[in-house]
Amino acid sequence: MAKLHVACVQMCSTDDIDENIAAASTLIRRARAEGANFAATPEMTSLMDQRKGALAAKVVAEADDRALKAFRALAVETGMTLLLGSLPVRVDADLCANRSFLVAPTGDIVARYDKIHMFDVEVGDGQTYRESRDYRPGDKSVTA
């Protein structure tokens, strides 16, 4: 049985999808070079944009998501299993899903999970975060 060597990719995603793909890909390739055969990326790996309305202009359906395509190709290139912490994916005209993907070394998507519990909070300094404003919660847990 092959040993599991896991890497956790730590990065600060920005509002630039291509920059985020490049940053995560560099770290995943580095992890592979250091012996990892499984890498996990953070939530919102491909895009973090909290400006009101900005997310809607950048998020596309799963089939059209260039980050997902890039990471599937990277899984094949590196021969690694990738757990994409999440990518924002358009699910209807008004809402996205905060979706995790488990990608096999073949590039196939083994599992999908839509975040169930939205981050809705008011912090002490008057700031409010309402993930439910932009995201539709999932309705089931997933194992793979």
Q: How does this model look, in words?
A:
The chain has helices at 17-33, 54-58, 66-78, and strands at residues 6-8, 38-40, 81-90, 96-103, 109-114, 120-122, 128-130. 24% of the residues lie in helices and 25% in strands. Helix 1 runs parallel beside helix 3. The mean pLDDT is 93. By secondary structure, it is of the alpha/beta class. The chain has a five-stranded mixed beta sheet. Strands 6-7 form a two-stranded antiparallel ribbon. The longest helix is centred in the N-terminal third of the chain and has 17 residues, at 17-33.
β-sheet strand percentage: 25-35%
Structural class: alpha/beta
Give the distance, in angstroms, between the N- and C-terminal Cα atoms.
Answer: 18 Å
Shape, principal axes of CA atoms: globular
Count of strand segments? 7
Helical proportion, percent range: 10-25%
Number of helices: 3
Order of helices and strands: EHEHHEEEEE
Strand neighbour order, sheet with most strands: 1-2-3-4-5
- Average pLDDT for all residues: 93
- Rg, Å, rounded: 16 Å
- What is the subunit organization of this protein? single chain
- Given as residue ranges, the uncertain stretches (5+ residues, pLDDT < 50) are none
